[in-house]
Design goal:
7 helices; globular
Length: 196
């Protein structure tokens, strides 16, 4: 892997690839924050949708499903942000403000929002936060959800990067999460998994 200082591409095995705007020098870790609902963070089921905004250092809960992919791709999970979708809907400004401040403080380069599966309220929260973060910071957000979240996908797919994964219990979860990590690290083209 060779990064050309004055250009926006790398040479990889003789092929030139366009760099994502946040691509980093070899050997550095890409600073990533995870955004989960209370279920994916391990703080309760759907009935706990009023779980307040919280933070855990490093990756917790569902992060273990893709931890190996993160490490291989050079992504570091700085922290896991979690929030119940009901709490978010009632406190949008406050939640977005706190997440934005955390991104600025940690200098996070990526916000990994998912896996949302087919949880409609989580996908909606993830997309709303992703759009706000994209508009207010230099952090690049990614929302990973299943096609069953049709309304959210239709409303946000042209505004933020929304990547496809299977619904809860669906086939191909491991591949979809690995693919999302590969897209973030710049080794896979996002068009292969992005909702169109």
């Amino acid at each position: 892997l060779q990064k050309h200082k004055s250009q926006d591409f790398i040479t990889l095995g003789g092929m030139q690839k366009t760099l994502p705007p946040f691509c980093i020098e070899r050997g550095e870790q890409m600073r990533t924050l995870l955004l989960f609902d209370q279920v994916q963070a391990g703080y309760g089921g759907k009935e706990r949708g009023d779980t307040e905004l919280g933070l855990e250092k490093g990756g917790v809960g569902s992060y273990l499903m893709f931890k190996e992919d993160f490490e291989k791709a050079g992504l570091t999970a700085l922290a896991t942000i979690y929030c119940g979708p009901d709490y978010f809907q009632a406190h949008k400004e406050e939640v977005i403000h706190k997440i934005k401040n955390l991104i600025l403080k940690t200098k996070a380069e990526v916000l990994f929002a998912g896996p949302c599966f087919n949880y409609g309220t989580y996908a909606q929260m993830a997309a709303e936060i992703a759009l706000a973060i994209q508009e207010q910071t230099d952090c690049k957000p990614y929302v990973i959800c299943s096609k069953e979240n049709e309304e959210t996908i239709a409303a946000y797919k042209d505004k933020v990067v929304m990547l496809e994964m299977p619904k809860k219990g669906g086939v191909g979860l491991r591949e979809a999460l690995g693919g999302a990590v590969a897209i973030i690290s710049g080794t896979k083209d996002e068009s292969e998994q992005r909702f169109q």
